[in-house]
Amino acid sequence: MADPTPPPARGELPVVALTPGGTPPARAPRSDAAENRRKILDAAAALVAEQGPDALTMNAVARASGTGVGTVYRRFGDVGQLFSALLDDREVRFQEAFLAGPPPLGPGAPPAERLRAYLHALADRFIDQRELLLAGETAAPVARYAHGSHLGRHAHMAMLLRQLRPGTDASLLAHLLLAPFAPSLVTHLTRDQGYTAGQFKAALDTLLAGVLADA
Q1: What is the pLDDT of residues 109-120, one digit of tens each?
Q2: pTM to 2 decimals?
Q3: Given 1.10.4030, 2.60.450, 1.10.10, 1.10.287, which CATH number is that of 30-77?
Q4: How many other C-beta atoms can be found within 10 angstroms of the C-beta atom of residue 140?
Q5: How far apart, in whole angstroms, are the C-alpha atoms of residue 149 and residue 161?
Q6: Region 86-210: CATH code
Q7: What are the extents of the domains in the chain?
Q8: Residue 138 pLDDT grade (very low, low, confident, very high; cuts 50, 70, 90)
């Protein structure tokens, strides 16, 4: 079966499946196994979004996905592995969008437009999936900075910043622009404080304007 992942644009980072062990899968799964995996992950994501991470049990996911509980166990082993796979699946989908999707998020737009589109897309993702991401942060609050997903975001943003502001410390600027995307902060602002996605993105535009001034 051909690899369904589109090739990265020239000069971009490759999309990597972030398995719990940190290595990409050895081969593509059979079509029926891939279909079951997708159904299980989509059902798990819906459970977390609607009821919170505590609702993520193997039996609940089996019922919600219409698959046997034995299939869920064979595919993912336990709840911890299922949760890790769910986080990685959402991250790989996001990677595919900004590395090989249409502009301005994907290649083909000026770097300033891509950077703004990237921040907005990241805001939408963190707000829409805040329960899932918050649970991941709670499980490993410090390790997330060394996780492949964060490193990939940082590398992509630093690449765009180097194009916009040659000679500046693009790595540091990327870290600072990513700081608002701590899941705990996003949850506090949007759930507890009531800020909308539009307000969150407008504030990001204000921060970005300062970074791009005189660029």
Answers
A1: 999 999 999 999
A2: 0.76
A3: 1.10.10
A4: 11
A5: 19
A6: 1.10.357
A7: 30-77, 86-210
A8: confident
Amino acid at 111: P
- The string of pLDDT tens digits covering residues 158-208 is 999 999 999 999 999 999 999 999 999 999 999 999 999 999 999 999 999
